[in-house]
Hints:
Layout: H1 5-11, E1 18-21, E2 25-29, E3 37-43, H2 58-74, E4 82-85, H3 89-92, E5 101-105
Antiparallel strand pairs: 1-2, 2-3, 3-5, 4-5
The structure holds guanosine-5'-monophosphate and zinc ion.
Zinc ion (ZN) binds at residues 1, 4, 6-7, 46, 98.
Domain HIT: 5-111
InterPro entries: Histidine_triad_HIT, HIT-like, HIT-like_sf
Pfam family, one: HIT
Amino acid sequence: MNDCIFCKIVDGQIPANKVYEDENFVAFHDIHPKAKVHVLVIPKKHIPTFMDVQEEDLPLIGQLHQTIQKIANQLRIAENGFRVVNNCRDHGGQEVFHIHYHVLGGEKLPV
Length: 111
Ligand code: 5GP
Ligand code: ZN
């Protein structure tokens, strides 16, 4: 996974403005924010796309849901609400092939 930019962020080889980190996940500000708050939440495990999540990964994906709740509370966007987006593969507009969830908020988002 040497060429994966998000694995490099996990390993600290390239910098990121992190807002959260634990044993299994990292969250950091998107370099090109599309909302007042735009963070990317990723598992440290390299899973390329939404479609590559295996049955053995389901506990991790459940934890990811809980991690997003924690981050939303920490960033104070939970009460007013926010949006979670995963872009999957070509038609979904995925650019980085390490699964990530965009968390967008801090303002009323366009529909
Ligand atoms: P995708 O289109 O794959 O769902 O989204 C990839 C996101 O990663 C984009 O919103 C892009 O701005 C962000 N991104 C790409 N490279 C970097 C980087 O090196 N650092 C950070 N913080 N964000 C990045
Ligand atoms: Zn990766």
